[in-house]
Amino acid sequence: MLTIILLILIGGLSAILGSIVGIGGGIIIVPTLIYLGVENNLLEGITPQIAIGTSSVILIVTGLTSTLGYLKTKQVDVKNGSIFLFGLLPGSLIGALLSRYLTLESFNLYFGIFLIIVSILLIIRNKIKPFKIFDKPKYERSYVDGTGKKYHYSVPPLVAFIATLFIGTLTGLFGIGGGALMTPLMLIVFRFPPHVAVGTSMMMIFFTSIMSSAGHIVQGHVAWSYAIVLIIASYFGAKLGVKVNQSIKSDTVVFLLRTFMLIMGIYLIIKSFL
User: Which residue spans traverse the membrane (predicted)?
Assistant: First the structure.
């Protein structure tokens, strides 16, 4: 019973926070599963690979549920966001296959560094002015949101492919969905408006999670008994997160999230050397 309660809390909370900020929630699920399973034996059969693979499967539901919610409010730029999938999809499959080489110590070190980098990105994302280097007519895209406001931004295909191939690889490797890096990338480099970046990020998380999950399922990296409970909790959590996104300032959630990631990142790095 305790296991079920823990899984419900993990799935629900990660989906709520992930859908509000546009990161999916895998960045919370993976270290939590490892902490409970590997370090405290509260969850049986958990290894870094199984935590990553299980998280990838959960993110399919979180990504789809959030995307459907954001589509209703016109916060998903399907046409322009799809350009990023050319790099994200193959990258996420590559990362999933590479995850087999992770040991607990190497996972703690690399994921800890990754968490700190993401937390820093979340801290400075509103302070960095969007790059204007790609502002050329041939790269210009436009999108009209739910309020009827039209936005213009640039998405150079080659730059988008290279950046998203790298992010996609990290997505599959760590089971984090990619939104933690895609949202800042869209805001800073491609100059997406914040609310559209969040919704579009969740769409990409849905597709990359399908690809990375395929790689993990083939390798037997999914704990299905845990995944079922997490999926149900994530479904309701994601729906709630989309609603909350409309009513509160996401800056408050971002502050809590980046603080959590910074502390967790430092903890994992120290743990890798002990």
Answer: 7-38, 50-71, 83-101, 107-124, 158-182, 188-210, 222-240, 252-270
